[in-house]
Amino acid sequence: MSYLRFIAVAIMGLGLSACGSVDTATRNAPLEGPSLQAAAVPLDIQQIRVNVPKSLKVSEANSYYPMGDIVWREDAPGDRHAQVKAIFEAALTRGVGGGVPGGIPAVLDVQVTRFHALSEKARYTIGGMHTIQFTVTLRNPETGVPYGPAKPVKASFKAYGGQVAIDAERRGQTQKVRITDHLVKVIRGELGLPAHPESDLVAALSVGQ
Fold first, then answer.
1. In whole angstroms, what is the distance from residue 177 CA to residue 180 CA?
2. 87-129 tens-digit pLDDT
3. What is the C-alpha separation between 31 and 193, in angstroms, rounded?
4. Phi, psi dihedrals of residue 107, rounded to the nearest 5°
């Protein structure tokens, strides 16, 4: 179930004034049943805030499966928390592009709980999984009050290995590119936004620090 549907009952049940932007027929439609459509709760994402807690353990071990919360090697050695945050910010900014101006105003809060890409050893041999987990919360921009509880999201997917990984890199399909593109699709799915062409994946949003 998408996060949009997850919070729809809470938003509409509270009778928030922002729901005045939704037409009367939609507001009065039953919330239970097979078709609570995304358009029933249009969202206007006004800010994105990403948190990568320093409590997440970074591993730089070059083993098949390093034991850590953050495993990331495609950027130069440095602040891995900041690097992961930058990846999420880029993906989420693209992902919420094409939202609904005039919809329910919201701040998108994301907290990363795991970001486990491949070590060099796994990348160029057996491959594996990009294990990515985070929580999503939508908040009222004026009050900071969440529209609903935080929702855990698992966004893991298969990672290339060996010659497949090498060939993908030659095509420009690096780990960062694949992870970013995947997160774009995941967040659009969670927010009930329709898929859109790559050329339209641009959003003029403020990214919270």
1. 5
2. 999 999 999 875 566 778 999 999 999 999 999 999 999 999 9
3. 18
4. -100, 130
